[in-house]
Queue: 3 jobs
Job 1
Amino acid sequence: MTMMRKTTGSRGLAGRPAVLILLVLGVVFAVFGCSKGWIPEEGTRARQDHTRTSDGNYRVRRGDSLYAIAFNYGLDWRDVARWNGIDAPYVIHPDQLLRLTAPPRSTAVTTRAVGPGPSVSDREAAPENPAARTEPAVVKPAEPERKEPAVSSAPVTVEDPASWKWPVEGRLLSSFKAGDPSRNGIEIAGEEGRPIVATASGEVVYSGNGLIGYGELIIIKHSERMLSAYAHNRERLVVEGQRVNAGEKIAHMGRDDRNRPMLHFEIRRNGTPQDPLRYLPRK
C-alpha cells in the first residue's frame, strides 16, 4: 500500500505541469478570441497623425502653424505659402491639405476662333494655305517671383553674428553637423528652470508641443529669412504673434527625452539649418 501511494503521488505531480500549461493556453486563446485586435495608444495615434498623406501632402492639425510645418520638414515657409496660395497673415485651418513640394510646371496652348465656330486650339486648326502653317504658340507660365515683404526703413541686422545673443549660459553638449537631422542645432546643458532668452528681436511664430522630438517648442522669426528655435522647455512664457526683444525671457529650461536638463537651439536661414556657432558671439 505504501508503494502504491508513492507511485500515485508521483503521477499526480508529473501531471500537474501539463494541466497548468493547458489552463494557461486556454486563458490566452480566450483573451485573444474576445479581443477586437491591438489598439494603439494615444501617443501612437498622435505620431501617425504627423505623417504626410499618400499623395505627399500634409493635413493640417489643430495647433499647427505654417512656420512650424515648414520647420518640421526643413522647408522655407515662404515656399510653402507660395505653393499653396496662402497670403499674409498666413492663416491655415485644421484638415486643410498643404503641398510640401513645388507644383509641376504645365504648358498652355493658345486658342483662336476659326470662322463662326467655337474656339479651338492651334493644334487642331487646319490653315487653308499650307505655306502659312505655323507651329502653335506654346506659352509657359513664368515662375512666380518671390517678393520680399516691405520692411521698415531701419536696417535688419539680425543676420550679423554680432547682433545675436546666447539663449542660455551653459556647457555645450552637442554641436551642429550639416546633413545630420539629429544635429540640426546645438545642445546646451544647464539647470532645469533656468531662464531661456530670445537670441534676437523678432516675432513668435510658434509656441506649442506639436512637433515630435522637440517637446515644448518656441520658434521666433527675426527676418523674412531667419528663424531661431528653442526646444525641450519646461515652461513656455510667450504666445504666437507676440513681439520679443533680444535677451527677453521666453521660457524655462526643461529636460530632453533622456532626462537631461538642456536646451536644444537651432537657427535656420531660408528653411535650412545653420550652425548656430557661426552666429552666436564667441565665449
Note: DSSP finds four helices and 17 strands in the chain.
Job 2
Amino acid sequence: MLDDVRRLPDWFRETASAADSVYGRVGVVLVANVKGRTKPIDDYDGDSIITEFLSSTELDDLLAAFEQADVYCEAVVDEEGFLDWLRERRANFPRQIPLVYNLAQNGIGAARLALVPGLCRLHGLRLLDSDGYSVTMSHHKFHTSVILKYFGLPAARSWWFTAEGWWPEPPPTGLRLIAKPTHDSASIGIDKDSVFTMNDGVNTHLERRLNLYKQSLTVQEFISGFEVEVPVFEAAIPRTLMAVGIQLEHRRHLGDEFMMYEQVYSDRYEFYDFAEENSECAAKTKALAEQAFRILGFSGMARVDFRVRSDGTPFIIETACKPHITKHSSFSFAMCTFGSSQTQLIRFLVGAAAKRHGLS
C-alpha cells in the first residue's frame, strides 16, 4: 500500500454501491481467452496474440474479486465456449439477469473483439461494458486518432499505410515516426525497428511489416518524453482517478524509449503517480481522457494512453476499451493509491452496468 493513500471520490462510491441494488438478480458471464487453454485460430510468425490472453492466475484473481464483491460469476473460455454456453448453460444460469463481460479476442485483424457483443445483441443479452461498435472503433488506431483530432483533442499526428500505399499522403521527410499494427494491442508488433525517420526507402521497410502482421499499419509521429495511462470510469459524466506514469527499469522520463512487445509480455515495467512529475499536465491528461471516453462512446471502464513531451505537452497515442484490470495494471495501481482493491473495480463495473441498463 502506498503511503499517500487517498479516499475514493463520491462519484466512484455511489456508482459502486449500485451493485448492492441488483444483488441476487444479476450475475456475470466472464468470457476470456486463457493462456494454455485457448488455441489461437490465427497468429503471427513473430509476436503472438497470446500476450493479450489472461493467465490462469489472472483469471483466478478476477473470479476471486467477483466472489469478494458478492457478484456471481461464471467463467467461459473463448468465443467457442460462449457459443456452448448459449446453447447448453444459459437456461441454467442461476441469476435472473446475466451481464456479459467479454475479454476474448482470438485471432487477428479487425473487429474480432466485437464477436461476442454481436452474439449478445442477437440473443438479447446485456453487456457489462462497451458495445460492439465502441470496441471495434477503439481497436482501429488510425480511425480513433482521426475522430479525436476532429473533436479537437491532441491526438498524435497519424497516417495510414496500407497495401495501396499512404493515406491521406506520406508523412514529411525527416519526421521521426513509429509504426504499429492497426488492430492490435499489448504492444504486439512493436519492437526496436518500429521507430524510424521518414525517407525515400521507408515504404519497403513498412511493406515487410505490413505482410508480417497481415494488416495495415498506423504510423504516428513519435513523441519523445514520458508515457502515461489514464484509467477512465463511466459515471454521470466520465471520471478519472489519476494519471498513471509508466517507468522502465525505474526510469520515468523515457526520452526515445517506448514500450515494446517483450516488455509487455513479461510485465517488465512499473507504475507511478504522474502528478509527482507534472501535476498540471497530469490534470490536463485526465480532462482529455474524460473527453475521449465520451467522444468514443465507451461504457464501464476504458483507458487513454499518452506520450508527453518534456515541456508537458500531451498527445493521445491509443485508447483501450477493454483495459486489463489485473493486479499488474494502471487500474489496480490507481485503486491501490486510493486505498482500495480490484474488488471495488468489480463493484464499480456492475454498478455502472446496473445504472446503464436501468436495473438499479
Note: The two ends are 32 Å apart (CA to CA).
Job 3
Amino acid sequence: MSASPLVSVVAINYNFEKYVLEALESVRQQHYENIELIIIDDHSTDNSVALIKYWMSTYTGPCRLIVNEKNLGVCATLNKAFTGATGKYIAAIATDDIWLPDKTTIQVQLLESAGQDVCAVYSDAYLIREDGSPRDKRFMEIRNVKGFPQGEIFEALLTDNFIPAMSVLLKMECFKAVGKFDEQLVYEDYDMWLRLARKYKFLFSDYMSVKYRIKDKSLSTSIIWEVPNTKILLKHLDGHPLVLKKLQEIALKAYRKDQKKVFDILSATSLHDPYIRRLLLFHRWRIPTPIGLRLLPSLSS
C-alpha cells in the first residue's frame, strides 16, 4: 500500500508503563503500511521511556520519540506532536488504549472517498478494565446520544461528548484550519470536535476500531466535568440557543451539587442570562437548594 496517503499517528504517553507496549504493538499491527509514528512522553516518572526505546529498536517503520523536559499536560503535548506531523491524515492514541488492526485501512478509505466538507471519521469503542477484560457496555452506550450521529453533528455534540478520541482519523488540513488544541483546557477533544463540527461534517464508521481502557484512578473518573465543559461551552456560545441551554443545565447542576468552581467561571464572564444570574445569586447568598429550586420556576415565568 505504498501509494496510499501518509497517516501520522501520535502516541501520547504519561506513566503508562503497564500498557505502553500493548498500545504500541496495536499500532505496529495495523494492516495499513504508510504510517509515521510519533511517540511523545509527557515527562513520565515511571519506566515508560525505557520501554518505549526498547520497543522502537524492534520497529522498522518511520518512528521518532519526543520526551518533554517537564510535564506539559495533554493539550500542549498533543500540539507539540501534531506540529511535527507530516501526514495527510492524523490520529492520536493514548498509550493505555488499543487499536484494532483494520482501523487505519477502513478509515482512510472512508475519508479518501468523502467530500471536501468532511473532516474526520470516528467509531464506537469497546470498553475494557485495567486488566484488559471487557466491560459490559460500549463507549456510546453510556453517552447521552441517540444512534450514531454523522454529517453535521454540532448540535448532537452539545448533548454530550460522544466521540471516542482514540477512534478518530482526522484530515490534517482541517486541523490546521481550526487551529491547535486549547492549552488552557484540562482535556483536549471536546473543544476540538465542537470547533471542527461548526465548519465540517463527520463520518461514522460501524467498524469498532478501538478499545478504551477505563482505570479506577484516571482523568476520566476523577474530573468534575462541569468545570472544563463550562469553559468549553462559553467559547462556543456566540448567541447559539442550544449552547445557552446547555450552560443553563450545567449551572442548575452546579447549584444542586454546590460546585463553586463552575460559578466562579460563570461569574467572571459577561454572560447576562437571567436564569444563570439567578442561580449565581442563589449560590452566592447560600440559599438552600430546596428553597432555590422552588423559587426558580416563579422567577422564570
Note: The two ends are 64 Å apart (CA to CA).
